[in-house]
């Protein structure tokens, strides 16, 4: 366990077993090149109050961060975090970005809460150097009281073939997918109806199979309708036989059948595609991520905590 010089970490990007980036409060971004043993922390200049809720790194030198809240900023570094360049700014009233994901080294999307009754969507095609707002007609409409949670930068996933998949919560919880240039929404039978409830994270194994976790973050030991499974691309959802032991803000697959979920009240593992979960630690985190190339799994959360999970 290590601790960074910040109050909370919600952005985490693990590229290899040795190279990972983290981001969070106080405008802070961190990088480790030795598997989390040592960290280099920098504060993005002029962004002391920014809470970087998502970080996407391409290598040891290049990374992009986006903050939650108003005004909205996206910054990019190409010298390992020594300096940062602002590549997007928006001070529209109500602007609030929640997540960012890249399908490859060039194409990415940032997603935010509704403006003009449609979810905010930005697109980049040059690795985050420039961002364009999608026209209103290309952005999915939001229902009353529906929003996205900026809890762990894991509620949006880009899939091959220009597909995207994200989940929502609040007054209404839905699974929303972009396929063949059309947004298709399906209801999620997860706990919902209040601003603190809904779907917080989605782990996508392939175009058909996914796990969603969430719950009520103000009642973080509640196990009622806090996890859902789909095997048909989000058209229908089922509840696990044994759910995680409370609210969970992030879920990932670490192989074809094993998944890890974490939240403020603990961390769980499932070895059977999410059907049965067992608590492995009462220590809670905001986010868990696995190495894109490698086997390492890291968790991060409040008080700047970063821990490596032993999976073998």
Report on the structure:
The chain is mainly β. Helices cover 0% and strands 46% of the residues. The chain contains no helices and 29 strands. The protein has strands at residues 2-3, 9-14, 20-24, 28-32, 40-43, 52-57, 63-67, 72-77, 85-90, 97-102, 108-115, 118-124, 132-133, 146-147, 156-159, 163-167, 169-170, 174-179, 182-187, 197-204, 210-216, 227-230, 250-253, 259-263, 266-270, 278-281, 287-290, 297-300, 305-309. The strands form eight sheets. A four-stranded antiparallel β-sheet has the order 1-29-28-27, with no helix packed on it. A four-stranded antiparallel β-sheet has the order 2-3-4-5, with no helix packed on it. Strand 18 and strand 19 (182-187) form a beta hairpin. The radius of gyration is 18 Å and the shape is globular.
Could you list the spans in which at least 5 consecutive residues all have pLDDT below 50?
none
Helix content: under 10%
* Integer-rounded radius of gyration: 18 Å
- Major pleated sheet: 4 strands, antiparallel
Count up the helices.
Answer: 0
Mean pLDDT level: 97
Task: Write down the overall geometry.
Answer: globular
Alpha-beta classification: mainly beta
| Spatial order of strands in the largest sheet | 1-29-28-27
- Strand/helix succession: EEEEEEEEEEEEEEEEEEEEEEEEEEEEE
Give the N-to-C terminal Cα separation: 18 Å
Task: Count every beta strand, where a strand is a DSSP E run of 2 or more residues.
Answer: 29
% residues in beta strands: over 45%
């Amino acid at each position: 366990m290590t601790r960074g010089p910040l109050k909370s970490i919600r952005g985490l990007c693990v590229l290899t077993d040795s190279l990972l980036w983290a981001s969070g409060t106080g405008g802070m971004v961190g990088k480790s090149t030795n598997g989390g043993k040592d960290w280099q922390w920098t504060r993005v200049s002029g962004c002391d109050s920014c809470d970087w809720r998502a970080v996407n790194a391409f290598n040891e030198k290049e990374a992009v961060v986006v903050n939650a809240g108003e005004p909205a900023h996206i910054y990019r570094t190409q010298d390992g975090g020594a300096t940062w360049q602002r590549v997007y700014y928006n001070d529209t009233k109500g602007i609030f970005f929640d997540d960012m994901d890249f399908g490859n080294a060039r194409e990415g999307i940032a997603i935010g809460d509704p403006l003009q009754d449609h979810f905010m969507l930005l697109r980049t095609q040059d690795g985050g150097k420039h961002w364009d707002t999608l026209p209103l007609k290309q952005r999915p409409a939001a229902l009353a009281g529906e929003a996205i949670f900026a809890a762990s930068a894991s509620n949006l996933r880009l899939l091959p073939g220009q597909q995207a998949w994200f989940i929502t919560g609040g007054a209404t919880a839905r699974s929303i997918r972009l396929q063949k240039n059309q947004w298709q929404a399906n209801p999620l039978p997860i706990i919902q109806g209040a601003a603190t409830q809904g779907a917080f994270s989605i782990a996508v194994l392939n175009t058909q199979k996914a796990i969603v976790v969430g719950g009520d973050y103000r009642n973080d030991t509640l196990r009622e309708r806090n996890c859902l499974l789909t095997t048909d691309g989000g058209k229908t959802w089922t509840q696990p036989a044994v759910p995680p032991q409370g609210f969970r803000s992030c879920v990932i697959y670490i192989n074809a059948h094993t998944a890890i979920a974490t939240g403020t009240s603990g961390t769980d593992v499932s070895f059977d595609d999410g059907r049965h979960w067992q608590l492995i630690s009462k220590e809670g985190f905001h986010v868990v991520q696995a190495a894109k190339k490698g086997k390492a799994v890291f968790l991060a959360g409040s008080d700047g905590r970063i821990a490596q999970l032993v999976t073998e």
